[in-house]
Amino acid sequence: MEVYIDGKFHPKAEAKVSVFDHGYLYGDGIFEGIRLYQGCVFRLEEHLERLEMSAKAICLTLPWSRKEISDIVCESCRRNGLTDGYIRLVISRGVGDLGLSPKNCAKPSVVCIADTINLYPEVLYASGMKIITAPTRRISPAALPPMIKSLNYLNNILAKIEAQQHGYHECLMLNDQGYVAECTGDNVFLISKGRLITPAPYSGALAGITRQVALEIAASLRIPVVETNVTRYDVWNADECFLTGTAAEVIPVTEVDARQIGDGKPGPLTAAIRAEFRKKASREGTMIR
Ligand code: PXG
User: Fold this and answer.
1) Are strands 85-92 and 29-37 parallel, antiparallel or unpaired?
2) pLDDT single digits (tens) 80-130
3) Residue 89: CB partners within 8 Å, gap ≥ 6?
4) Which of 61, 74, 101, 272 has the fewest CB atoms in 10 Å of its CB?
5) Can you tell me whether residue 218 is helix, strand or coil?
6) Is residue 178 part of a domain?
7) 209-220 and 268-283 are packed helices; what angle lies between their axes, rounded to 10 degrees?
8) Are 188 and 199 in contact (CB under 8 A)?
9) Choice among 8, 56, 130, 149 that is catalytic
10) Are 143 and 106 found together in one domain?
11) Is 16 one of the annotated active-site residues of the chain?
12) What residue numbers bound the domain in which 21 lies?
């Protein structure tokens, strides 16, 4: 495998960045996790738009055009002979002196890793996943807007550790008001009385690209969509539940906080949305060649 760092490809073992990079020292940077399906990058424009918005939010001026970044992503896939894979595009504040100020960083750094990912065991996509609510709350938008896909994942990692300590793969995270925000790396959806329900924008979740795809699919299947405040009570009493994410794709949830969701099996609308997602993933995208 070869990793792109600031204009050059390096063999995996030699793909290194400076310890003085503020991405390493302070988590000062942003990233995207992107999927490659059958030689096409899925929703590349949306990912690059979100990257630009994250950059804007942290006052990081991208010295590359969208086309240049797009070329880096596609070239990384070609270089590694991938037709299916997971791309991690990381932009950090760059190398600087010690001290929080981004002013002493001369230029941002860009890294692109084109690899594969297996987030959850494959069997869970058929059987459904069991999750719990984490004690750790999703960080308040007043402290760090969760819309920014930043290099600061400790909030989510703490919740992930809590899930794993109790034998679970994933967990719900509530926002500072106690409403459901998202999971540690996935957005949350419910099906209740034939409607698709998901936490509203600004509920403390990342604006997921896969979330957006799920909403489009629901519209095409004429499933009414409600973006609103979601409580744990709503989750426990839903007919179906599933999670979405670039890495996770669409994964059914069959138990939350020891309450069985619906009949305890992945539901029919979840299956329909998952099937449509697979179709879209195999048909759409930016060709890397
Ligand atoms: N919420 C959070 C906090 C995320 O990090 C999502 C939701 C889903 O968004 P997308 O746009 O992917 O549909 C994410 C996704 C990684 C990695 O290692 C990244 C994510 C999740 C898991 C692993 O690159 N981000």
Assistant:
1) antiparallel
2) 999 999 999 999 999 999 999 999 999 999 999 999 998 889 999 999 999
3) 31, 32, 34, 47, 51, 69, 72, 73, 110, 111, 112
4) 61
5) helix
6) yes
7) 110
8) yes
9) 149
10) no
11) no
12) 2-115
